[in-house]
Here is the input.
Amino acid sequence: MVRLRWHGSQGEGRQAVTRALIFDCDGVLADTERDGHLPAFNDTFAHFNLPVHWSEEDYAEKVRIGGGKERLASLLTSDFIASANLPTDEAAQIELVKRWHRFKTDRYTAKVRADEMPGRPGIARIVATAHDAGWLLAVASTSAEESVRAVLEHAVGAESASWFRVYAGDVVPAKKPAPDIYLLALRDLGVDAADAVVVEDSQNGLRAAAAAGITTVVTVSSYTADEDFTEAALVVDSLGDQPQTPAHFLSNPRGVEETGQVTLDTLTALTIR
Here is the structure.
């Protein structure tokens, strides 16, 4: 197994380079959108007596908006404000969205801790392998940090979750598809883009990682299977766990070996240009 990449020749002056594996959260660590976020949003609407209930079809459009507060703010059309008898003052609306979002985050986190959303195949396996090989681990997500940490711990276990740095929520002003959160992660980890791999599930996430110059693997999820992943180095239905849940390789433009699961050797091969 490849642990480190070396700069320079095999002689004097070689430097070992640490690699990083960076995950999105929702749809990557667990398939959280349909079973977690959507019902939590609808619980929030009911709690605050808002005249809206998102269907799965409605939410398929909303997931294209990065960030929970941003999805809630998309409700604030003039017609909705009037029908819900909401304030027209912008500052009051901002505070209202924050209040809705705090409630929604609490509801969502409770669902995660109630074991309603299992980790996706291959996540715990590749995290353990990467850690053993000396890779740095991180999560970069537009979701609230509390929610991200709950999903992470649920998906990989408390000990493995402690290996991660988490970049989440409003830690950067511009959310995906802007590359800001990935650029922040690279700076904080002290890793070059060429030495990192991102695992994403959405076109917005892929665009963010690609704009940061990072090789990206896409594991499609409930709401993203039909999106355009042309820029991805690899597209699979999951990272896979052989033999129970093998990965199906949907797009493999760099021609890496298809073994039935995405391994650390797969990720290393993807970064060799």
Observations:
- The chain has two domains: 5-31+117-270, 33-113.
- The chain has a mean pLDDT of 91.
- The radius of gyration is 20 Å.
- The longest strand covers residues 136-141.
